[in-house]
Amino acid sequence: MVEHSRSRYQYIDNFLNKPGPTTDPDFVPGAPTISNLEASKVLVIGAGGLGCEILKNLAMSGFRDIHVIDMDTIDVSNLNRQFLFRKDDVGKSKAEVAAASVTSRCKNVRITPFNGKIQDKDEEFYMQFKIIICGLDSIEARRWINATLVSMVDMENPESLKPLVDGGTEGFKGQARVILPTLTSCIECQLDMHAPRAAVPLCTLATIPRQPEHCIEWAKIIAWEEHRKDTALDTDDPEHITWLYDKSLNRAKEFNIPGVTYQLTQGVVKNIIPAIASTNAIIAAACCNEAFKIATSCNPYLTNYMMYTGDDSIYTYTFEHEQKPDCPVCGNLAKTITVNPRHTLQDFIESLGERPEAQLKKPTLRTESTSLYFQSPPSLEKQTRPNLSKQLSELVSDGEEIGVSDPAFTIDFKFKLIFQT
Amino acid sequence: MTARPLTPPPLQGPTAKEKKYDRQLRLWAASGQQALEDAHVLLLNGGSPGVVGVETLKNLILPGIGSYTIVDGNVVAEKDLGINFFLTDHSLGKSRADETCKYLTELNPDVQGYPVQKSLRDFLGSAIPSDAPDRLSSLTNPNALDKYSLVLFVASKQNYPLLRLVSSYCAAKALPLFYLHSLGLFSHFSTQLPDPFPIVDTHPDPTSTQDLRLLDPWPELQAFAKSKTENLNTLSNHDHGHVPYLLLLLRFLTDWRESHDGNPPSEYREKKEFKSLVESKARTDNPEGGEENFDEAAAAVLKSLNKPSLPSGLRQVLEDPSSKQLQQDSANFWLIANAIQKFHQKHGSLPLPGALPDMKAQSQDYIQLQNIYKAKSRRDIEEVTNSLRSTEADLKRQTPVEAKEIESFCKGAAFVKLIKGQPLPVYAPNAKAPPTSLQNILDDEDSLLPIFLAFQAYDHWLHENSNTTPQTDPSAPFSSSSSSSSEEAKPPLEALKQSATQTIDLNAAGDGPQINADDIMPRIEPILAEFVRAAGAELHNISALTGGMVAQEVIKVLTKQYIPIDNTCVFDGIASKSAVFRL
C-alpha cells in the first residue's frame, strides 16, 4: 500500500522503522507495519470536544482511513474548544464540518462522516473497523456501543474483536481507557465509577426548597408541567430557558433563597458539564496514543484505565480495572442488588435510574414466571400498572432473579434481589 | 395550540462572549477570563518540529488568551506537514512562524497572533550580546520581554545558554517561564514561577471546605439551636424530622458536655459513642422507619467535630517573613495575610467562610441558619478589614486593598496556597538535583524520575554536541531549512548513556548518600533507547497531550486559580502515567 511519498511522515517512519526495548517481539519494523497503519480503518464516535482532537491526532499519526459519526449540530458554546468549527458553521452537522475541516488541511487523509445516531448502524457497519475510539459525553451511548461490540465477538473470528478506546472529560479532569470486548473489563463493568448525580427528592422541590438549584428543578419539573404541558421543553431554546429562569427567580424570592442566575438556570436545566480545550487535548491524545500503539504494536498499550486530575497540581492514576463476573454485558452472573421489601415497585423502578450500578431510566421488569411492569406497549403497560403500588415483598421473593430491559440498550440485565430491612 | 406571549429576554441574559465561553466560565468565572484576555504569551519555538509549543498555544487561543507571539526561525519542510496540524501543503518553504500563526489565528478572532521569523538567538540578540551568549548580566535591553505575561521555551539544540539567559531574566522580572520537551513517547516540562507565587482562589473540593464551628458556636448560633431543639421530644413527627442536623448536633453536644465535665467528644472512641447517641435519638416508629436529618447528623460526627487547626499551606503563608515584616510596597496578599494572622492570634480560629452545606430542613429554618453563618462571616471579614486598614495607615500606603480581595482571602483562607518559585531544573553543568531524589528512584521501582534524568542526559548531549556540527540556524537543532534530512543529528545510544552517567554523577555529588550511576542506569537506558528510536523528534500524540497539560498549567498560573504544578512533570506514553516532582 505504501505507494505515495512518505516524506511527510518522516518522523513517524523513523519511529516505526525499529523496535524499542519494550516493543512486542512480533513487531515487524518498517514497511509492513506502516502499510498496516495506513490500511487500518478506524471509527471515531463523537465529533465534539474530544472528537475534533481525535480526528486531528489520528490524521497526524499516520491513519488515513477515518470514519466519524455524530448526530449533533454545532452550537456557539462549542467554539471555545471544538477547534474544527468556526462561527459560520453554527447549526451545521458536526461530523460533516469536522471531516471537511481535517481533509482540507490534510489532503492525503480520507474522513468519511455520518450525521446520525450510532444506534442507526448495524453490526455489519461496526465490523469493518479495526479500532473504535469514543469521545462522547453520554454514558448511555457508551453503554450502547460497548454492549454492541461485546455481542459482536465471535471466538472463532479474531477480527470480530474490536478494541474500544474511550475518553471522557469534566473540567480539569478526565479519563482514558482501553477495552478489549469480552477479554477485559468493559464500560458496563466500570459503570459505578461514573455515578450519576443524586436527584433531589420531589418533596423537597415541591415544599421545602433551600438551594437555588431546588427552585430551578421545581420550575423545570413542576411549573413547566403545570403551565406549558403542551410544549415539549427544549433546553436549547432561549425562550424556554428564560421562562424557567423567571419562574425560578420568583420561587426563590418567595422563599428568600439567594443565588438564582440565568447561567445557573441553564447549567441545571441542561445539566451542563464544564469543558475546556486543554483537558480535551490531554484525553483525546491519550486515547489516540493508545490507538497508535494498538495499530502498530510499537509498544504495549494501556491496561486499562488512566484517570487524570489537573485542578490541584497534576495527578494521574493508571490501573487495571478488573472484569466483573456479574457484569450484565460481558459476564454471565446476575448482579446482586439490595432492596427494601417494604418499598413499592414504583420506588424500586425509580431507584434503578439512580443506582450507580444500574442507571436504567425506562426499565421493563419481569421474573422467570410473571411480568412485573412493562413500559410498552400501552396495553401491557396498563395491565401491569397496578403492580407499581405493590410492595416488592408481594411480587418477588428474597434472592429471586429478575430480568430487566430498557429501550436505551440492546441487552437484558439480570438482577438478584436481596431483601434488607 | 394557543398563542402564548413570548417571555421577553431577561436584562441579565448572557452576552455573545458569555455564550461562547460558557463552558469555561463555569470553571474560572469572569475574573479568570479577564486575566486570560489581559495576557500575552511568548512562545520561543526553536525546537524541531516544535509541535508541543504549537499545540499548547492552540489550547490557549481557544479559551481566548489576549495575544501570543511565536518566535521560530525555521522554514516549513515537508516532514512538518505530517506532524503539525497548523500547516498546509501551501506552507512548504515559507516561514513556520508565519504559517502556524496564520492557521492558529483562525481558531479565535478575538485573539491577536504575532509571528517573528527569527532564530531565538537573533530574537533575543537585541537583548543579549551575540558574542557572549553565556553572560547572564549583559542584557543590552533590560526590558526586552516586558510586554509578555508568560514565556514558553521549547527545547532546542542550543538551548542551554539561551535558556539560562531567559531563565535569569524571567526570575529577575517575576515572569513565569515554562520549559517544554517532547521526544518520542516521553515528555517533560518544568515551570519557573515567581517567588512567592500565592494563590487564593484554589477551588478546593466543596465537600472538604465545610467549617461549621460546631465545637465553638457563637451566641447567635447557640441561641437558634436552643430555640429549635429545646422541645425536641414534643415536636410533631414532621417537625422532628426537619430540624437541621447542625442544630441537632449542637443540642446533643450541649447534653454531652453536661455529663463530661464540659468537654466535647474528642477521642475516636468518644466520637463513636456520641454518634450512637445521636442515632438513638431518631424516631423509627414513623412510616419511613427513620429520619433523614438524624442520618445526616450521625454521618457528620466524625468529620465535623474537630478542633480547628491551621492548615499547613496557610501556616506557611502566615509564617513567611513577607507576611510578618510588611513594607510600604508589600503585595496586597501579604497585607491580608498579616491581618488574618492577627485575627487568628486573637481568636484561635480563622475568619468564618460562611458557606453552609445543604441539609434536610424547612426552607425558612435553613435560610435563617444560612443568614446566621453569613452574618458571622461578614463580621469576621469586617474585623480583618479594620485591622488591615490601620496597618495601611501605619505604612502610609496610598491605594487601599480592595474589599473584594480581602473577602475572597478570608473566605478561602484555609485553602490558600503559596508556591516558592525556584530556578528551572534543566540541565546545567553545575546544577544538582537533590541526592535524596536519586535515592527515591532506588527505593521506588515505579518512580518516573528516570524519565527526567533521561531528558537531562539528552539536553546534556545536545549541549555537548551543539558546536560540532555546522548549522545555518543555530537555534534549530535539526534545521528543517536544510534540504537533506540525512543531515539530522541522530543521537547515538552510547553517547547518551555516557551523558546520563555524567548527569547522575553530577546529581549524586553532594552531601547525601552515595549513589552509584550503575544502579540507576538500567532504569534510564530503555528511555534513552526510545529517544534514539524517535531520532530526537516528537510524536504528535505525545506533543498534543503535553500541550494540553502545559496549557492547563498556563491557565492556572495566569488566572491565579486552581493549583499549578511545582515544578516538574514527566509523562510516560508507554505506561500512560505522569508524575510531578519538586526539583
The biggest chain-chain interface is: A-B, 89 and 92 residues
- Main sheet makeup of chain A: 8 strands, mixed
Please state the structural category of chain B. alpha/beta
The computed structural class of chain A is: alpha/beta
- How many domain regions of chain A? 3
Low-confidence stretches of chain B: 468-488
What is the total number of structural domains of chain B? 4
The count of DSSP E runs of length 2 or more, i.e. the number of strands of chain B, is: 10
Radius of gyration of chain B: 29 Å
CATH first level of the largest domain in chain A: Alpha Beta
At the fold tier of CATH, the topology name of the largest domain in chain A is: Rossmann fold
- CATH topology of the largest domain in chain B, by name, is Rossmann fold
Oligomer: heterodimer
Number of helices of chain A: 14
Q: Tell me the CATH architecture of the largest domain in chain B.
A: 3-Layer(aba) Sandwich
Write down the overall mean pLDDT of chain A. Answer: 93
Q: What proportion of the residues of chain B is helical, as a percent range?
A: 40-55%
- Strand percent estimate of chain B: 5-15%
Structure description:
The complex is a heterodimer of chains A (421) and B (583). Chain A is an alpha/beta fold. Chain A folds into 3 domains: 7-195 and 275-319, NAD(P)-binding Rossmann-like Domain (Rossmann fold); 202-270, Ubiquitin activating enzymes (Uba3). Chain: B, domain 2 (Arc Repressor Mutant, subunit A); 335-419, Roll (Structural Genomics Hypothetical 15.5 Kd Protein In mrcA-pckA Intergenic Region, Chain A). Chain A contains 14 helices and 13 strands. Chain A has helices at 10-16, 31-39, 49-59, 94-105, 123-127, 139-152, 202-206, 212-227, 238-254, 262-270, 277-296, 345-354, 378-384, 392-395, and strands at residues 41-45, 65-70, 110-115, 131-135, 164-170, 173-179, 305-309, 315-319, 335-339, 364-367, 371-373, 401-405, 413-419. In chain A, the strands form 2 sheets. Chain A has an 8-stranded mixed beta sheet, with helices on both faces. In chain A, strand 7 and strand 8 (315-319) form a beta hairpin. Chain B has 583 residues and is an alpha/beta fold. Chain B folds into 4 domains: 16-201 and 542-581, NAD(P)-binding Rossmann-like Domain (Rossmann fold, 3-Layer(aba) Sandwich); 212-304, no CATH class; 312-419, no CATH class; 435-481 and 489-535, no CATH class. In chain B, the strands form 2 sheets. Chain B has an 8-stranded mixed beta sheet, sandwiched between helices. In chain B, strands 7-8 form a two-stranded antiparallel sheet. In chain B, helix 8 packs across helix 10 and helix 19 (449-464) crosses helix 21 (517-533). The longest helix of chain B is centred in the middle third of the chain and has 33 residues, at 363-395. Chain B is elongated, with a radius of gyration of 29 Å. The chains are: A alpha/beta (421), B alpha/beta (583). At the A-B interface, helix 1, helix 3, helix 9, helix 10 and helix 11 of A face helix 1, helix 2, helix 3, helix 4 and helix 16 of B.
